Amino acid sequence: MNRIYPLIGQIIEIVQYIEYNIVELICEHSQQSEEVIREKWGTSTLGQLLGELQHKDLLNEDLVEQLEKALHDRNHIVHQYFKKNDFVKHSDNEEMIKNQENYLKNRLHEMEDLNEQLYKQC
To answer: How far apart are CA 76 and CA 13, in angstroms?
Structure first.
């Protein structure tokens, strides 16, 4: 478990950076002041921000699909992950723990790459 918890924390952190960069992107393409945009969108969820991006057509379809996957993965990790993976029951199952560690590392790398692409759009 010492390998799992830090990865989940890193995923949650990178999703917050993704949200921040989406707000930056909205600011860049808005007629409204940055202050107004940040007030309106600064505390929005990834799903709400994704909806705004789609409404304003600010990203290409590939990036939107990657964001949709990131949203799905984030929601799964935050709301379902421990319900579906009984680490107490399988605490001695090194293969299961390693598989989950790899799963989380892959999600983290995908989200880091996505965040980098968003950052470059700003």
So the answer is: 15
What are the pLDDT digits (tens) for 9-34? 999 999 999 999 999 999 999 888 98
What span, in angstroms and rounded, lies between the C-alpha atoms of 105 and 100? 8
Beta strand ranges found along 4-85 (DSSP E) = none
Residues near 88 by Cβ (< 8 Å), separated by ≥ 6? none
Alpha helices in the chain (DSSP H): 4-28, 34-41, 46-56, 61-79, 81-84, 94-121
Q: What whole-number distance in Å separates Cα of residue 65 and Cα of residue 117?
A: 13
H or E element at residue 114: helix 94-121
Give pLDDT tens digits for 30-78.
Answer: 888 989 999 999 899 999 999 998 888 889 999 999 999 999 999 999 9
Round to whole Å and give the CA distance between 66 and 111.
Answer: 9
pTM of this prediction?
0.91
CA distance 42 to 35: 10
Token pair of 68 as six digits: 């949709």
